[in-house]
Amino acid sequence: MARHSRKIEILDAASRIVSQQGIFNLTLEAVAKEAGISKGGLLYHFKTKEALVSGMVKHLTDNYREKIEAHVEADPEEIGRWTRAFLNVTFNHVYPNKDWNAGLLAAKAVNPALLKPLHDAYKDWQHKIENDGLDPTDATLIRLSTDGIWLSELFDVYQIEEEKKEQVYKRLSEWLHALQKKEVPFSE
């Protein structure tokens, strides 16, 4: 258990560096210093910078996947539950440190192939969303709208105010509910 905790501390330190100082400041030395361990201690867990970034992506993806699957399992409604889970987790799940998303930026800069775990998760989610009992195009539009909010925050581009974000979430939830009840006239 201690190894797992130390690994998480290292990943958290790496994420903070990327988020606060930029990808070019992500070095093994900087991560070791930020995590409060020796470089040798860091190398015990992550042999290379690429392995570290891979760990960042895998941790984020696994955490996200677990949250979505937990929401799906807890949802008593069969129709639309994957789309609802994706919407709810993306809008409402706050990682212990919002810097975790920085691992995705680091992967894109270091080696885009390191994003494969996230690509695989999205391929699976998209398939499940399209086969969720809803109109596949409408369900995909909800997913893409949800991703738009997340990506605007990830890239720190124009971000809407919290009140507007809540209104968007509410509108998407209402749309999803109407789709589930087949009350949306433009779905066909």
Automatic annotation (TrEMBL):
<dbReference type="InterPro" id="IPR001647">
    <property type="entry name" value="HTH_TetR"/>
</dbReference>
<dbReference type="GO" id="GO:0003677">
    <property type="term" value="F:DNA binding"/>
</dbReference>
<dbReference type="Pfam" id="PF00440">
    <property type="entry name" value="TetR_N"/>
</dbReference>
<dbReference type="Pfam" id="PF17937">
    <property type="entry name" value="TetR_C_28"/>
</dbReference>
<feature type="domain" description="HTH tetR-type">
    <location>
        <begin position="4"/>
        <end position="64"/>
    </location>
</feature>
<keyword id="KW-0238">DNA-binding</keyword>
<keyword id="KW-0804">Transcription</keyword>
<keyword id="KW-0805">Transcription regulation</keyword>
<feature type="DNA-binding region" description="H-T-H motif">
    <location>
        <begin position="27"/>
        <end position="46"/>
    </location>
</feature>
<protein>
    <submittedName>
        <fullName>DNA-binding transcriptional regulator, AcrR family</fullName>
    </submittedName>
</protein>
<dbReference type="InterPro" id="IPR009057">
    <property type="entry name" value="Homeodomain-like_sf"/>
</dbReference>
<dbReference type="InterPro" id="IPR041479">
    <property type="entry name" value="TetR_CgmR_C"/>
</dbReference>
<dbReference type="InterPro" id="IPR036271">
    <property type="entry name" value="Tet_transcr_reg_TetR-rel_C_sf"/>
</dbReference>
